[in-house]
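Hi everyone, sorry if this is the wrong subforum. Our group has a chain we'd like a structural model of before ordering constructs, and none of us has done structure prediction before. Sequence below.
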Amino acid sequence: MVTMKDVALLAGVSVSTVSHVLNGTRRVDPTTRERVLRAVDSLGYRPNMMARSLRRKGAPLLGLVVPDATNPYFAEVARAVEDRCYELGLSMMMASSSGQPDRERRAVEAMTSHRVGGMIIVGLGFPEEQARVLSGLEIPVVMVDRKIQGLPVDSVQSDNVGGGYLAARCLLDLGHRRIGCICGPRGLGPSEDRLRGFEMALAEEGVPLDPSLVAWGDFTCPAGYELALEMLKDQSLTGIFAMNDLMALGALRAARDLGLSVPADLSVVGFDGISIGRFFVPPLTTVAQPIEEMGAAAVDLVVARMGSGCFEPVTRVINCSLVERSSSAEARPR
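Answer:
Right subforum, don't worry. Here is the predicted structure as tokens:
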């Protein structure tokens, strides 16, 4: 799908300039205007007429609630949502729940009091509490990153099963057979799905999942560090899959503190594909979630609901991709 950002790149101007040309909201130099219009024709860009209609009616504001604004993954999701809102001429209000259901409830209440036209919620690990908070809302809601069973709202998520499979397949193809898995919280949908995909890949190679090499964390660097320290007591271990990039960073530090070289002694694969992963030492091999696509899809679903609202709940599942960098290599005995 061609976006306003694509038009701006081809025309060599900012997204705001493209918006002003198409919406007539500010005078633009005629030469620049012509360049933008040529880019529009060349790419076949079609403005979102539903969003234009909503703006004219004064539907101004979308709400976004994330679990942790300090987590780079959620920050990048927020940026993707904000970019799509900007492309459509909508504004965004954001709050962080700090992983606490009560703070999420208060954020939702504050946003509804400000008359947001729709809301995007990046899921917490408390589905019952979230269902109670969201079920009584009279505005469109889209869940990102997970789905709550029985709650009739739209959702956008990555293929976590496929992502776990990609991570395991990467290590298996490099000859690793003793692979540790540092999971997110037990019982959390993405954690369980990634583990299921991981186990599927192992089964294809006839490699049993060793329960002693599965540890449950909380998606933080300290958890990755402590769990990797314990896991690396197993001298036969040559690879670790951490279910997010922050825990992978903790595992990299644990390996360094134990005098192990990555990837010579240990390969590490993360999950999320946050932009700072390429600056880790060594740069992190990771399963990248389609963050920009997920953020844009969530906004588009909310806008569609605001425009009509009369269709069955939609679940969009978008494929992940493997990004191979220097933290993974062929297996060697330690």
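For your construct planning: DSSP finds twelve helices and twelve strands in the chain. The chain has three domains: 4-47, 51-158+291-318, 160-289.
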